[in-house]
Amino acid sequence: MTPEQEAVLRSIRKLVDFWRITPGELGGIPSGAPARVPAPAKPAPRVPVVKYRHPITLETWDGEGPQPPWLRDALTREGYTVDELRAAPPASGG
User: Fold this and answer.
1) Which residue has the higher pLDDT, 92 or 4?
2) Could you tell me if 83 and 53 are in contact, meaning their C-beta atoms sit under 8 angstroms apart?
3) N or C end of the chain: smaller count of CB under 10 Å?
């Protein structure tokens, strides 16, 4: 055990003694049993928000990363403007 860990344990023991905390109050961990640390919660998957949509092909882009080829073609070859390709904001549910 490192000196830092020993110092932390001394501090914890002092606090437990001061507050008269019982093992049962610590979540029912039996003395001598290793504490189980819950696994960190997985973050919710990111749902991409469509920011650009081709009016004919309906291809979409969320605005992150490099521009997709369909967007470059729509702007340079097909004559669309950025405003024409901008998707309508999602309707707020409530």
Assistant:
1) 4
2) no
3) C
85 contacts 53 by C-beta, under 8 angstroms: yes
**DSSP class of 67:** P
Residue found by looking up tokens 């605005």 in the block: 63
pLDDT tens digit string along 17-75? 888 888 778 776 556 666 677 788 888 888 889 999 999 999 999 998 999 999 999 99
Is pLDDT of 94 > 60?
A: no
DSSP-based three-state secondary structure for 52: strand
Residue that is written with structure tokens 């109050």 in the block: 25
- The residue type of 85 is L
Contact 54, 85 (CB under 8 A): yes
Helix (H, G, I), strand (E, B), or coil: what is residue 60? Answer: strand
Q: Decide if 84 contacts 50 (C-beta within 8 A).
A: no
State the Rg of the chain over Cα: 29
